């Protein structure tokens, strides 16, 4: 294969991969438009990283307020309340003990149960 043909193949594979990535991103964020494909790709990677962070398990006995704030329905104030409760009363023995913290109800606990752990 000639060098020009090899470069052409690599370019086509890159373009197909980028097109697939952009089409999946466009499906989620159709309102966002990028003139530069590299900028669109970076936005896609940032979105995927954020989604990964949102799906990772959170140990409520060791998590920082920032990590706790990634939970569904938990803002900065409630996340800090969890940390303060843990510092004042000690480790959580069960995930359900999280409802003892002001601002965390059963609904919030259930929305996040799949992500919570108490190692």
Automatic annotation (TrEMBL):
InterPro entries in alphabetical order: Competence_ComEA_HhH, Endo/Exo/Phosphatase_dom_1, Hlx-hairpin-Hlx_DNA-bd_motif, RuvA_2-like
GO biological process: DNA repair; protein secretion by the type II secretion system
A GO MF label: DNA binding
GO CC annotation: type II protein secretion system complex
Highest taxon of the lineage: Bacteria
Chain ranges of the Helix-hairpin-helix DNA-binding motif class domain: 66-85, 96-115
One Pfam match: HHH_3
Signal peptide region: 1-30
Keywords: Signal
NCBIfam families hit by this protein: competence protein ComEA helix-hairpin-helix repeat region (TIGR00426)
PANTHER family (alphabetical): ENDONUCLEASE/EXONUCLEASE/PHOSPHATASE FAMILY DOMAIN-CONTAINING PROTEIN 1 (PTHR21180), ENDONUCLEASE_EXONUCLEASE_PHOSPHATASE FAMILY DOMAIN-CONTAINING PROTEIN 1 (PTHR21180:SF32)
Full protein name: Competence protein ComEA helix-hairpin-helix repeat region
